[in-house]
């Protein structure tokens, strides 16, 4: 099995879409999976869920489990499948339950 590591992300992290702040957290997690870029997972409580709309998209990762997606409603447009979550992640990555990740090619994810 691939060794996935999850750490507390250092500092304060923010997600911006079309200039709007979608998430800001000092309690984010950094997930490192070999062969993939690292991903920051934001606690749901630190995400402006009013900007998110459930998508019909679902994927399955053999290491993390079933993911569900969200569209992001920015001030200027809809960003399709810009965020995802693992509601019931597989054993070994349970820390990301209740967290959302954002597609860094579609929105800005940065440390302040």
Automatic annotation (TrEMBL):
<protein>
    <submittedName>
        <fullName>Uncharacterized conserved protein, DUF427 family</fullName>
    </submittedName>
</protein>
<dbReference type="InterPro" id="IPR038694">
    <property type="entry name" value="DUF427_sf"/>
</dbReference>
<feature type="domain" description="DUF427">
    <location>
        <begin position="14"/>
        <end position="103"/>
    </location>
</feature>
<dbReference type="InterPro" id="IPR007361">
    <property type="entry name" value="DUF427"/>
</dbReference>
<dbReference type="Pfam" id="PF04248">
    <property type="entry name" value="NTP_transf_9"/>
</dbReference>
